Amino acid sequence: MQDIDLSGQVAVVTGSGRGLGLAFAKALARAGAAVVVNDVDAQAAEAAAQAIVDEGGRAVCEVVPVGDAEAADRLVARAVASFGKLDLMCANAGILRDRVLWNMSDEDFDSVIHTHLRGTFTCARAAVRQMRQQGHGGSLVLISSLSGQRGNFGQTNYAAAKAGIAAFARTWALECARSDITVNAIVPVAYTQMVATIPSLAHLADLVARGEPLPTDVRQRLGLGLAEDVAPLLVFLASAHARKVTGQCIGIGGDKLSLWSHPQEVRVAYREGGWSPESIAGVWDSSVGLELQSFGIPG
Length: 299
Known about the structure:
Layout lengths: L9 E4 L5 H12 L3 E6 L2 H13 L3 E6 L5 H15 L4 E4 L14 H29 L3 E6 L2 H5 L5 H21 L4 E8 L1 E2 L13 H5 L6 H5 L4 E2 H11 L11 E5 L2 E4 L17 H8 L15
Parallel strand pairs: 1-2, 1-4, 2-3, 4-5, 5-6, 6-9, 7-8
Antiparallel strand pairs: 9-10
């Protein structure tokens, strides 16, 4: 198969000054797309855009924290002003404020929800308005998480936001279908500065710092790699090869590529006239509750 060519496409990648977002922006540019780099850190955003230009790509930066509608409108306006249109919005920006439930403050909760969930909503809304006005379709690629699919200790805020983002993808795929706009969520597993804060993965920090490859067991059993291992999925989803792919949550990391199932009923019981507490208790262990669902990220 020939290399995927995104020449002529224009993309916005939020939170792309470093980490996963930077890998996304560089991969898109290398495939031929023009990119609006976004970050709250002006120095990081400018350096990322310059790195793309130095490689022969096209990029500009817009320094603004995502969340509010004004920020989203600025990002879309920058794409249109700089490159004439918008084809792809990748809503990647995020922060962590990990605490167990009883120690999590309102600010911890609200700041993560604002950046991840509200930021994804406002950026997607602004992008779809522009794409519908242009009339030739486009792509939204959202970033979910294992925490949003499975739950994770200490991540009430983050897991809730990422689960909501998965629901966004399914809902917006329905709403945007007539406009030929695909909507998908990536479930990445990549070693970034955010992941480095997870205690169980701290032992990998020295390997990454020395530029050494992650062990095969980590890349395959955990499906954990570097940010550069995730970026090819975004390029695929932005391409003509994925025009019929929408409403999906797709996992990638290390050597692993996967498709996540949508929530669905796994066991059902019926009782004419409805249920009482006692009747539920009477059938629970032998029927609906026979095998409860697992939760949490496997170690």
